[in-house]
Amino acid sequence: MSEAKKDHHDDHHDDHMKVYWLVFVGLLIGTVITVLASKIKLGGYMDVTLALAIAICKASLVLIFFMHLREAARIVKLVAAGTFLWLIILLAYPVVDIASRYWIAVEPGWLNPHAELSGPADTE
Amino acid sequence: MSADHHDHPPYQAHHFDSMEQQNQSSMMGMWLFMAQEIMFFGGLFAAYMAYRFSYPAAWVAGASTLDVNLGFINTLVLICSSFTVILMVMAARKGSDKGIMGWLVATMVLGAAFLGIKYVEYTGKFDHHLFPGKNFDTHYVMGKMAAHPEKYAEFKGMGIDWVHELVGHESHDHESGDKHHGSEDDHAKEGAHGDAGDHGDHGGHALPADATAPLGIALYFGLYFAMTGTHALHMVIGIGIGIWLLVKTKRGAWCSEYHPYIEYFGLYWHFVDIVWIFLFPLLYLI
Question: I want to staple B57 with a disulfide (CB 3.0 to 4.6 A). Which of B69, B104, B163, B214 is the partner?
Fold first, then answer.
C-alpha cells in the first residue's frame, strides 16, 4: 500500500470514529431521557407513544450508523425498510383494534368514556 | 495471492462475478436473517401491545416489581457493548487481528455482565414467586401496589378496588419511615421464605382480606419472562458465536478486505441491543 493510500484510509477511519463517538454519546443521553420521560405522566396512550418514539430514535441511530445502513447497498436498505414497515403494521393495527373495543367489565371513564355499564346486549 | 487460472481472490466464490457482488449478496442474506429475527421478536411485542391495553392495571403493578436501576445499568452496558463491537469492526477493516480479538473479548465481557445482572433480577423474581406456574403468588405484587396506591386510581373494574381505599393511608418507603423499623426486625426474624411474602415492602401494613392482584398479572410476568428470556438466550448465543470467532481470528482467517463473519456478528449484536432498547422502556418504565 502506498503512503498516500494509507493516509486516506486512516482519515476515513478517523471521520468514522467521530461519528461513532457522537452516536455513542447520543445513545447514552437517549437512555437518560427515556428514564426521565417515563416520570412524565401524559395519560392514556401517550405514555407508551412517547417511550416508543424515543426508543425508535435510539434504534434508528444504531441502525443507520452502527449497523452501516447508511452505506449499504440499496437492496439491503430495502430489506431493512420493508421489515420495519411490516413491524409497524404488526404493532399498530392491533393497538387500534383494542383501543376501539367495547369493554364490558370496565366502568365508564377508562378506555371507553362514553360507555354505559349495561353493555351491548341491551341494544338487541 | 498466486493466481494460476484465477483472476479473483481465493475467498471469492465462483458463482459471483465480483467481490462487490458477493459482499452485497451475503450482506443481504444477513439482513434477511435479521428480518426473520425482527418477526420473531415482533410477535412477542405484538402480544405485549395487545395485553398491555387490555390489562393496564396489571402492567403498572407488574412493572412496579422491577428494579429500574438494574434495567438502566443493563441498558448502558449493552450500549457500551455496541460501541466495542463497532471498534472491533473498525479493527477488522484495518486488518488488525489483535484489535479484533481485544474488542471482541471486551464485547463478550460486557455481554456477560448483562447476563449477570439478569441473573440477579431473575433470582429475585423466583424468590418472590413471580414466575407463572405452580408457585405463582401475588403477595409481593400486592405489597408493591399498597405502597403506591395512587398509581391505580384510574383503574376501575380490574379487581383491585381494595387499592382505592388505601389512597391517603399509603405507607412511606421503609427506608425513610422510622416507625417501620420494628416491623422490619420482625420480618427478619421470620426468615426469608414462607412468610407469605410481605417482607415489609409496604411498611408493615397488612393487606386487606379482599386484596387481589389486578386482572392479567400472570400475563405480564409471562410476557416479561418470555421477552427478556428470549433476549437473554440471544445474548448467550451471541457470546457462544463470539468464542468461535475468537478462535477463527487467532487462526488468521481474516484480512482487511474480507472478514464477513466479524461484520455479521457486529450486526447481530447491534440487533440484540436494539431489542433491549425497546424492552427497557416497555417493561420497566410504565
Answer: B214
